[in-house]
């Protein structure tokens, strides 16, 4: 009887959600890297809930982190190093059939900055300090305004290179992998105490993509593990994702380049 009791399913931890995301992401990236060799399109379906899972985990992580500034800085360094590493590898290998455009760190950074802005607005309202409220609004709007500036620079032949390099170092909403879908992060943060509302937001986004005929509607399946999340951290893997994410993409890219050219 005791063994049956202890073996009962107790829900998913944050660790479990991350592992699910990593496995699904790996399958998705196999499709991306091996399309030139005929990788089937259905492999891409596995990746559709991944961004949503990582967005949700970032909301949970940011809500409980001891230092939100350090959390933001880790994501910023991840974004920059991922961009530079992909640039160097792609230029050395010269495998043009696959483009290394992946950088989930940028998506998470933009979303996290907006969560940070929400916190500043909340602090300002509590302390009745208009300066903090304005700072929070500015932080939230920064990735939107930077998008507009970068797009205007890209449209001018004289400033195109400055814009290209600016994208590498400046968090901008419209230059993220998932574009406006990143807004799910601050929205889920606002609804962090109402999981049903978080899942409703995901469902609304999925319905939008379904109406557009995009397979991204499959993000709705992220709702299942999110509803089964037990609120516990689980095993620690604080820095694992920061290393696994770029390394698995670069390795798959190199393997694909080797197989395609031999």
UniProtKB/TrEMBL annotation:
The keyword Membrane applies. Keywords: Membrane, Transmembrane, Transmembrane helix. It comes from Enterococcus plantarum. The keyword Glycoprotein does not apply. This is Conjugal transfer protein TraX. Pfam families: TraX (PF05857). It comes from the Bacteria. The chain crosses the membrane at residues 21-39, 45-63, 75-94, 100-118, 130-154, 160-187, 199-228, 240-260. The lineage of its organism: Bacteria, Bacillati, Bacillota, Bacilli, Lactobacillales. InterPro entries: TraX.
């Amino acid at each position: 009887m005791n063994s049956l009791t202890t073996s009962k399913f107790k829900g998913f931890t944050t660790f479990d959600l991350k592992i699910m995301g990593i496995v699904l992401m790996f399958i998705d990236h196999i499709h991306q890297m091996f399309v030139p060799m005929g990788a089937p399109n259905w492999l891409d379906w596995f990746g559709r809930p991944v961004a949503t899972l990582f967005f949700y985990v970032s909301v949970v992580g940011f809500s409980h982190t001891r230092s939100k500034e350090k959390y933001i800085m880790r994501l910023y360094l991840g974004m920059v190093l991922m961009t530079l590493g992909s640039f160097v590898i792609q230029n050395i290998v010269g495998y043009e059939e696959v483009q290394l455009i992946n950088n989930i760190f940028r998506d998470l950074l933009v979303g996290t900055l907006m969560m940070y802005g929400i916190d500043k607005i909340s602090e300002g309202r509590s302390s009745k300090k208009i300066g903090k409220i304005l700072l929070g609004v500015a932080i939230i709007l920064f990735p939107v305004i930077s998008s507009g500036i970068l797009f205007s620079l890209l449209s001018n032949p004289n400033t195109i290179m400055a814009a290209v390099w600016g994208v590498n170092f400046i968090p901008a909403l419209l230059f993220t992998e998932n574009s406006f879908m990143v807004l799910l992060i601050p929205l889920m943060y606002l609804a962090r105490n109402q999981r049903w509302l978080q899942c409703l937001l995901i469902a609304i986004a999925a319905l939008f993509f379904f109406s557009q005929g995009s397979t991204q509607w499959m993000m709705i399946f992220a709702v299942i593990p999110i509803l089964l999340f037990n609120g516990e951290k689980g095993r620690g893997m604080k820095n694992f994702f920061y290393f696994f994410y770029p390394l698995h993409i670069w390795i798959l890219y190199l393997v694909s380049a080797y197989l395609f050219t031999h």
